[in-house]
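Any chance you could type out some protein's one-letter sequence along with its backbone structure tokens so I can compare the two?
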Amino acid sequence: MTPRERVLIALKHEIPDRIPWIEGIVGNSIASAVCGEPIRVDWSVAPDGFSKQRGDDLAEEQKKTNRVFGKDNLQFCAFAPIFARKMQKADDGSPVLVGDGLIRTRDDFHKLFKLPPANDPGFIANAAEFIAHKGDYCAVACVRLGIGATLLSMGIEAFSYAMADDPALIMEVHDAYAGWTARVAPIMEEIGFDIIWGFDDVAFNNGPVFKPDFYRKHILPKERAVVASFTKPFISHSDGNMTPLLDAWLELGQAAIHPIQPDVMDIRMVKERYGHRVVIVGNIFMSDLVHGQPQEIEAQVRERIETIGQGGGYIISSSNSLTDDMKPENVRAMIAAIDQYGWSGNDGRAGAPRGH
């Protein structure tokens, strides 16, 4: 199977030849160390929210990594701009970015909020060039549905006050972002992207930013309508402990969820309760890839494949991205373990040697 076929088959809950492997970001330093050659991917986005790097170069640099890693996807970003002065990790180390959001009042929103046209000719030409160079890999369009961008643009403090005092402001900001994504996603699909992957962090390590009732009432209706308009599979992402929000989250109608953060969520529970409804993407622990030993990574990969991968509906991934502080030997162990244990046998069970 081609990498593209492998991912798309897994998203249908069917059995591919090998458990697919996809990642959001692979840092240039770790990629270069493992590949033995310079990898130069510009993962940042321009002020208008679009990828900075030329589409052909962006695809070719990622393909260098994929050929060594055996990874199956290529990433292209189309994020709407964030209206904030500075973004950083929360002081408690939780995965949600917080910062000095500029959209604190309705006046701020009307004065400052302006998104680029989704049909910007330069953006479309660059995305088309990326697709022209994707080869047999699964081309992923990275977007935000709306709530993640809203949190970042308002900041946690202003967002929290608005939840109690003015939820209509949250809805106004959110719906503007969601509407932009609804306009850009069909363009990405028409250009030839295979998957839409939405990055909207809405949880801390101790639980979601808001209660399920708030999400269902103020956020879900608009985002569900956006996802319903997609013609390609949609993967939704949030770091943190999403367990209390899972039932509501899955009302989006997504094909898969990522990354099931292993220090705060139980991937076996998620597979058991929800695996018939949604594909699981994850969750080799980033901390172990940084601090652990290769044999620990091998054991973790094998365990995920042999438990979560049985019966289909599983795509392996780190618990967020592959970062430059990871040990090259641990990433090599992940590569080797996926290649050793990820292939499907004649009976459709994962864990067979290659070619059996």
